[in-house]
Amino acid sequence: MVRVADGTLRRTPLYDEHEKAGARLVPFAGWEMPVQYEGVKAEHEAVRMAAGLFDVSHMGEVVFRGPDAERAVQRLVTRDVSRLEAGQAGYAAVCYESGGTVDDVLVYKNPDDFLVVVNAANREKDVAHFREHTGDLDVEVVDESDDWALLALQGPRAEEILQNFTGSSLSDMKYYRHAVGEVDGRHAVISRTGYTGEDGFELYVRPDAAAPLWRRFVEAGATPAGLGARDTLRLEAGMCLYGNELDEETTPLEAGIGFAVHLDKEQEFLGQEALRREKEEGLRKKLVGFKVEGRGIARHDHPVALGGETVGTVTSGTQSPTLGEAIGLALVAPGVEDSFDVVIRDRPVPARVVPLPFYKREKK
Amino acid sequence: MAVPEDLQYTKSHEWVRITDGVATVGITEHAQDELGDVVFVELPEQGATLEAGDSFGAVESVKAVSDLYAPVGGEVVEVNGTLEDSPEKINEDPYGEGWILKLQISDEADLLSAADYEKLLEEES
Lengths: 364, 125
Hints:
The complex is a heterodimer. Chain A has helices at residues 15-20, 40-49, 69-76, 123-132, 158-163, 207-219, 227-236, 272-281; strands at 3-5, 9-11, 24-28, 31-36, 52-55, 60-65, 88-95, 101-109, 113-118, 140-143, 149-154, 178-183, 186-191, 200-205, 223-224, 286-292, 303-306, 309-319, 326-332, 339-344, 347-354. Chain A is α+β, with helices and mostly antiparallel strands. Chain A has 3 domains: 14-52 and 148-237, Gyrase A, domain 2 (2-Layer Sandwich); 60-143, Alpha-Beta Plaits, CATH 3.30.70; 285-353, Elongation Factor Tu (Ef-tu), domain 3. The radius of gyration of chain A is 20 Å and the shape is globular. The two termini of chain A are 39 Å apart. The model of chain A has no long low-confidence stretch (mean pLDDT 96). The A-B interface holds A 35-36, 39-41, 44, 228, 231-232, 295-297, 299, 318-319, 321, 326, 345 and B 36-37, 39-40, 42, 58, 60-63, 65, 84. Chain B: The glycine cleavage system catalyzes the degradation of glycine. The H protein shuttles the methylamine group of glycine from the P protein to the T protein. Chain B: The glycine cleavage system is composed of four proteins: P, T, L and H. Chain B: One of its GO terms (cellular component) is glycine cleavage complex.
């Protein structure tokens, strides 16, 4: 149930809601998506202070089904998914033999199958990669992306708002757990996950349920939030974005998501050897967080320099709405430790390396 | 979108007010709306000399960067220092407190009338 506009850009089932809300729609990964409604800063703040609502229906849902489903997923992702319980989700990378990253994904373990959620821009590449490397196994790799819409309700008020619409007990649901249930009488997979650094939920629903639920949440006080706020929120939370921090030339270890790489897992995964070697021999580059100390905002692809020599590249950068400072992530040569210059429009501006994340919510 | 009739415009969405040989320059209401929340303005030094069409700085919103171009040639005689601490003035009052710089004109250039600029906006939408 995906609508296609003028033969090129796809539209989610929430397109009409975005238009009605006055969203600015932009092409994104082949989709026509809302980048903002009222404004990035206001939407960002709504997520940090109350609740924001995102349409992330463009993400891809790939199901692994059959006797060898777990073996197939184990072979493809860096995380040891045998350690996940049914009802649990885990963040992972998918790698090539070289260790370079195909995608970063969320793996949901269900009683009978695995759901792997992939980035919209990588969907076709991922599905081809999954099938290519599991052809010898008794597993069906099903691209169910068009059967699901995905809403992300994020922020300190997310639980309270969602609880009004579901019989599932949300206070008992831990972070990175999910359950099948009903929301406002509609079938939904309720997942306590997100990409904002806040508490929140992601709701996998049938396409025809998306708009009614969207309206319910907005009426209940959630602020529609676009891709602009999604990017500033995830960057404050120090989370990677495929195409920025991660790509085919960058390994998950370099991108600082080693926590999702289980090099000791029993069943071998694609890229394991390369990543092991990289760990032994030392990383060729590493991801660091920085704050700009001079005037200016570093952006994706701006060079990082030390003593006039280029030693890296900014992968993401923005003005942090929460901190009121220019922040960013950069892939830099090993040995670059405390400070460097970010070269903003040919002008070197001092920056200081800081620990990640830039923003951490206070746990209840 | 407001397009004041007493101003002149560029195709790159700057506005110009010329008084006694001095051009006050800012970006249009349309431009600030396209950018969204402005968080940083990069300004040239006072005394710098610009030719018409030179890039002299940039306006950054949370999401985007937009280069600024000199609508006429001349010397920078004043920059709006208020924007260093309050870049949001560009969103709030693009034709007033959100002005960006003043140029002592040495070189005229082709500028658009309000009517021509409105036509341009229609074509671009």
